[in-house]
Write a structure and sequence with these properties.
- The protein has 565 residues and is an alpha/beta fold.
- The chain has 3 domains: 169 residues, Rossmann fold; 160 residues, TPP-binding domain (Rossmann fold), CATH 3.40.50; 172 residues, Thiamin diphosphate (ThDP)-binding fold, Pyr/PP domains (Rossmann fold), CATH 3.40.50.
- It is built from 22 helices and 22 strands.
- The protein has a 6-stranded parallel sheet, sandwiched between helices.
- The longest helix is centred in the middle third of the chain and has 18 residues.
- Its EC number is 2.2.1.6.
- Keywords: Thiamine pyrophosphate, Transferase.
- This is Acetolactate synthase large subunit.
- It is an enzyme of class 2 (transferase).
- InterPro entries: DHS-like_NAD/FAD-binding_dom, THDP-binding, Thiamin_PyroP_enz_cen_dom, Thiamin_PyroP_enz_TPP-bd_dom, TPP_enz, TPP_enzyme_TPP-bd.
Length: 565
């Protein structure tokens, strides 16, 4: 250990002193100190006997606002919603066994949608791990379950807790965002240690695409008669949202988006060609003929999943470049001509620079009016198929300001919204694109409202999905969150019932529901609640809701046709 020499007074002997050891901290304090250093301002969760050292440290430090939930699944979904809107890690705090495994569904969804969600949970006492002797909350291979869901680090030394928590926060903000789990044995969490302070690791800059590949891609797109852009969540995370619009205008190319990419280009742009999602049911793919003319394309920040391509039926050209942080996704679903490994923002900047160098006179023969007409025709087809559904979408759009946030569950109304609800910026349309999990809408909307407290937030759900996590209404009431919730009630798992009817000659089983009175349900929690007589009342109801000090629930009894083709 280093020593220091103190200068003695005249005539006094020299003395040496040893620096004071670091202040003692519990494992819980080390975790919380790391969260504070990592910039975490909010956390969602449930206190249990195993994670009380964390909650005691939260109480003492007072720097992180906590939100108690009614189920651990709700806590992780709220962390997901927070991460989607804030663009920074969402944090959930849970306990051992069922506390942790209840977060598996949201973690799997966050993995699919590339979101930085950190779940911090506990494990049994260190000497008993793997012994399966029946300790409280002990599961068979809890660590294996969490590792399979999202990756998990088991921290077995209290002195390592601050370092490992900071490392997790840094890792999920490096490269492609991913969720993570930390597991801490309860005796490690309660232990007091003199561990030295640890700094937040520096987050490296994302890679820049290869210059030669950028040049080839720019020329390929410039020489195409019908270039096309296909963008996903990676493009929507770009800090400079004007880049994509400039790229589309420079190339005179329509921009298709995945569900996660909605808002990457404002829907009021004439080059915004709409979302590629189509329901997996039906005899045709339902894509506009205009899209099939593309002779070269660029994919930006999209995995080209089955959800975004209708099981890979989306017509993309043979000449296809892919710009993405994750090279492993390139060529997985569609063959690619060029691989541009890097983040969307730097890649688009380089492409724009190269296109400027090549000159502004490209070969594109697209007419923006053709793209606008194709999109209008798609809306008209939806309106003819189910006018009530499009009326709901129109009312939502009329009520929500441009910066407002719509959090969708899985329901027929939400399917229509995916395709027809227009947004003008990223992080304003929230949807479980990868997992398609029922119960997503309400807790994710709560997390979004915490991340954007001055922004109007609306949750759109069906009756079946809403009741998966409807008890989280208590959290919205407790913290006076002014979000609005529209429950489209058809007393059924409507989409599944429709699929049964269509595919199995009307043989319907276990998809008809006996529901509560949703107005009474909302009022029982202390929320404002009322029943709407029709879709035309949605806009007025929502505008009133956002002036209240707490959530508002609106029940709309309506049967909607699904968007089958």
């Amino acid at each position: 250990m280093a020593t220091t020499i103190e200068q003695p007074a005249a005539g006094a002997p020299a003395t040496t002193t040893t620096p004071a050891a670091p202040e003692p901290r519990t494992g819980g304090e080390l975790v919380v100190d790391a969260l504070i250093k990592g910039g975490v301002k909010h956390a969602f969760g449930i206190a249990g006997v195993h994670n009380l050292p964390i909650y005691d440290a939260l109480y003492q430090r007072g720097a992180i606002k906590t939100y108690v939930t009614r189920h651990e699944q709700g806590a992780a979904f709220m962390a997901d919603g927070y991460a989607r809107v804030a663009g920074t890690p969402g944090v959930a705090l849970v306990t051992t066994g069922p506390g942790l495994t209840n977060t598996v569904t949201p973690l799997c969804g966050a993995w699919s949608d590339s979101l930085p969600v950190l779940v911090i949970g506990t494990a049994g006492e260190l000497p008993l791990l793997g012994k399966y002797k029946g300790y409280l909350h002990e599961y068979k291979d809890q660590h294996g379950v969490m590792e399979a869901a999202a990756g998990s680090t088991l921290v077995t030394r209290a002195a390592d807790l601050e370092k490992e928590t900071l490392a997790a926060l840094a890792q999920m903000q490096t490269g492609r965002p991913r969720p993570m789990t930390l597991e801490v044995p309860i005796d490690v969490l309660a232990e007091t240690t003199h561990a030295a302070q640890t700094a937040m690791p520096q987050i490296p800059a994302p890679p820049t695409p290869d210059a030669a590949a950028v040049k080839r891609t720019a020329r390929m797109l410039r020489e195409a008669k019908y270039p096309i852009l296909m963008v996903g969540g990676g493009a929507a995370r770009s800090k400079d949202m004007g880049l994509l619009r400039r790229l589309a205008e420079t190339l005179r190319a329509p921009v298709l988006t995945s569900i996660s990419g909605k808002g990457a280009i404002p829907d009021d742009s004439p080059w915004a060609a709409g979302c590629t999602w189509r329901t997996s049911s039906g005899p045709t793919d339902g894509y506009p003929d205009a899209w099939r003319k593309a002779d070269a394309g660029l994919v930006i920040g999209s995995r080209l999943t089955g959800m975004s391509t209708r099981a890979w039926r989306l017509p993309l050209p043979e000449k296809l470049a892919h710009l993405d942080l994750d090279e492993s996704e390139m060529g997985k679903s569609y063959p690619v001509t060029e691989r541009l490994v890097g983040d969307a923002e730097s890649g688009m900047r380089l492409l724009l620079d190269e296109l400027d160098r090549l000159g502004s006179d490209g070969a594109s023969q697209w007419d923006a009016a053709e793209i606008v007409a194709a999109r209008r025709a798609d809306d008209d087809a939806g309106r003819a198929k189910c006018p009530e559904a499009l009326q709901i979408v129109d009312q939502l759009r009329a009520a929500l300001p441009e910066h407002g946030i719509l959090s969708c569950d899985q329901s027929i109304a939400c399917y229509w919204a995916v395709r027809h609800y227009r947004v003008t910026g990223p992080r304003r349309f929230l949807y479980p694109a990868g997992s398609a999990a029922l119960g997503f809408g309400l807790p994710v909307g709560i997390g979004a409202q915490v991340a954007a407290p001055n922004t109007p937030v609306c949750v759109l759900a069906g009756d079946g999905g809403f009741l998966f996590t409807g008890t989280e209404l208590a959290t919205a009431v407790q913290y006076e969150l002014p979000l609005a919730i529209v429950v489209c009630n058809d007393n059924a798992y409507g989409m599944i019932k429709a699929a049964q009817s269509m595919r199995y000659s009307g043989r319907v089983l276990d998809t008809v529901l006996r529901n509560p009175d949703f107005v009474a349900y909302g009022k029982a929690f202390g929320a404002h609640a009322e029943k709407l007589s029709g879709p035309d009342e949605i806009a007025g109801a929502l505008k009133s809701a956002w002036g209240r000090k707490g959530p508002s629930l609106f029940q709309l009894d309506i049967e909607l046709l699904p968007p089958f083709h």
